[in-house]
Amino acid sequence: MSFGPVLILREVAPRVVRLAAVYARPEGEAAPRLVAEGRDYEAELLATIDGQRIWRVSFELPRGIEAVYQSDGQAHVVDTAYDGDMRIGFVSCNGEENGDIDRDRDERNAMWKRLADRHGETRLQLLLHGGDQVYADEVTHGHPLSEGWPDDSPETASDTDLAGLRVHLRARFLERYRISYTAPGFARLAAEVPSLMMWDDHDICDGWGSLGAVEETGVGRTLIAAAREAFLLYQHAATEADVPDLFLDPTGRSLSFRRDLPGVSVLAPDLRGERTRSRIMGDAGWAAFEAACDGLEPRVLLVSSVPLLGPRLSLIERAMRLTRRMETYEDDLRDQWQSYAHREEWCRMLRKVLELEAAGHRVTAISGEIHLAVRAELKGHSAPVHQLVSSGISHRAPPKAWAWVLGTLARLGEAPIPEHPIRIRPLPGRGGVYAAQRNFLTLERGGDEWRARWTLEEAGDTPWLTI
Ligand SMILES: [Fe+2]
């Protein structure tokens, strides 16, 4: 079964907007045909996986209008007027760990459909996906080498067996993306709104980077290679050959990226590619990220797949070490910036953000990960750094009791950088700190002012928050 076009934003150039459209088509079918402004663009074959061809069409649309392109004869409109008022959507956590592909499609995709309906009323111009674009946790099922991943995984395996595992995993990743990308709501948005995506753990497997030695086994290396190939193909319309052009780290170890639009930079550090139990980003990732902090636009949207600002989770984490039964949760907590294991790196990132704020940028961190909606503020020198958390678009919320625990913890406050306390705040117009409902976020620029609002599954839209 096919999917596409899924539009990926490449560049807002002076006169045109450069895009890449990614498609999957059965091997026997013709390549997709894309026409824009009377020009016929040729499709490039990126990969053949499990009887499907993955195609990319790189094309241009004129900037500043409601531009139209045809994909296999069907017209799609893309609003490329990025210079004035602007509307950006943010989503995360598109799936669930267990049984996601067997869920009722209408239930699973209810918030996608709502976002697509919104887009039908007022066009979105950019869609940011902040991690867990697919939940690939179950791709390891159904193959003898990876069936027991990660707890019961063989330490060694023959090259032939690993080659078989590779075939299995590539097919399973494609299946996950295909189901996500053909979902009602998603498909229309993907064809009309250019996307930018940064992965988190479930795009690979639960807790990737914090799993320890098993990641270095043949099975672990095969899994990360298949996940990385899938991330590049389906989330960036790219292959390894494109990595130096699209990402900040020339070595390609870290897949952090930056894209500039008029007045706003999207900065997305890769918090997975180089992660270990004792670090979030490696030397290559940090060097590339810090270099990319030069020459940013006045507004910076920092896509941090795990929330940059949050409560003192390290307290729970330390308590959890007292009991082995809590190990799964401990892994989840280890993934956070707030983990005691990452304190130094967390402070390094907070100082960088404060440095940008002091230099006159307005920085907004946007994150998913926790399947709840919440916001936080870091006291800046003259303006607060806002943290907006919106998650998930299809992952259902955890029990309300968990939201209450976090809310209680949030009252303790936290100030890893002296003089710059972090405060967790309720969403506009709401009482409890954490909102345990599925949700997405809309960011809007009107004149020089930016504002944001959450759309909650049951409670609907929050009032706008000026950021
Ligand atoms: Fe998630």
From TrEMBL:
PANTHER family reported in the protein's UniProt record: MEMBRANE PROTEIN, PUTATIVE-RELATED (PTHR46689), PHOD-LIKE PHOSPHATASE DOMAIN-CONTAINING PROTEIN (PTHR46689:SF1)
SUPFAM superfamilies: Metallo-dependent phosphatases
Gene3D superfamilies xref list: PhoD-like phosphatase
Pfam families per UniProt: PhoD_2 (PF19050)
One cellular component (GO) term of this entry: membrane
Organism: Roseivivax marinus
Alphabetical list of CDD domains matching this protein: MPP_PhoD
Domain named PhoD-like phosphatase: residues: 109-319
The protein, known as: PhoD-like phosphatase domain-containing protein
